[in-house]
Amino acid sequence: MTVITQFAEGFMNLFQTGAETFISWMTGIVPVVLMLMVFMNTLIAFLGEERVTNIARVSAKNPLTRYLVLPFLAAFMLGNPMSFTLGRFLPEYYKPSYYASLAQFCHTSNGVFPHINPGELFVWLGIAQGVEKLGLNTMELAIRYLLVGLVMNFIGGWITDFTTAFVCKQQGITLSKTIQSEDLAV
C-alpha cells in the first residue's frame, strides 16, 4: 500500500508542479510577450506599415541585411520570441532563412545582451561560471561568441535560401520573392 500511495502522491505532484509552472508563465512571460506584441504593433502603426514594409523590402534584396542586420536589430530591440514577428514583412521565399538566422542569433548574443533571450540565460551563466573558475574574462568570451555567431547566423540564413530553393523545386511550388500586400495580413 505504501508504494501505491507514494506513486499516487508523485503522480499528483507532477501535475501540481505543472500547474505552478503554468501560473508562473501566466504572471511572468505571457504578459511580457503580450505587451511586446502590443508595443510592436503600436510602433508599426505609428511608423506606418508602408515604411516598415519598405525597410523589409530593402533588407530582403541583400543577404547581408536580410540575415545579419535585420535579425540583429529585431533580436536587440524586441528579444526572443517577439523578434520573429518581423519576418512577416519579408517575402515568403525568405521567411525560412530569416527564421533560421534569427533563431541562432537569439542564442549567440545572450552573453553580451542577456535581455534578448532571458529564458536561456542559465546556459550562458553555466558556461560563464566555468570560464570564471579558469580565471578568464567572460566578456571576452561573450563578444567572441557574438561575433562568431553573427557570421555563422548569416551563413545559416543564406544556406537556408539554397535549401528553400531545393525544396521548392522538389515540391513544384514557387514562393514569392517580393512582398505582396496580402502577405502582410495578420
Automatic annotation (TrEMBL):
<keyword id="KW-0812">Transmembrane</keyword>
<feature type="transmembrane region" description="Helical">
    <location>
        <begin position="142"/>
        <end position="168"/>
    </location>
</feature>
<keyword id="KW-0472">Membrane</keyword>
<dbReference type="Pfam" id="PF03608">
    <property type="entry name" value="EII-GUT"/>
</dbReference>
<feature type="transmembrane region" description="Helical">
    <location>
        <begin position="22"/>
        <end position="47"/>
    </location>
</feature>
<dbReference type="GO" id="GO:0016020">
    <property type="term" value="C:membrane"/>
</dbReference>
<dbReference type="GO" id="GO:0009401">
    <property type="term" value="P:phosphoenolpyruvate-dependent sugar phosphotransferase system"/>
</dbReference>
<protein>
    <submittedName>
        <fullName>PTS glucitol/sorbitol transporter subunit IIC</fullName>
    </submittedName>
</protein>
<feature type="transmembrane region" description="Helical">
    <location>
        <begin position="68"/>
        <end position="90"/>
    </location>
</feature>
<dbReference type="InterPro" id="IPR004699">
    <property type="entry name" value="PTS_IID_sorb"/>
</dbReference>
<keyword id="KW-1133">Transmembrane helix</keyword>
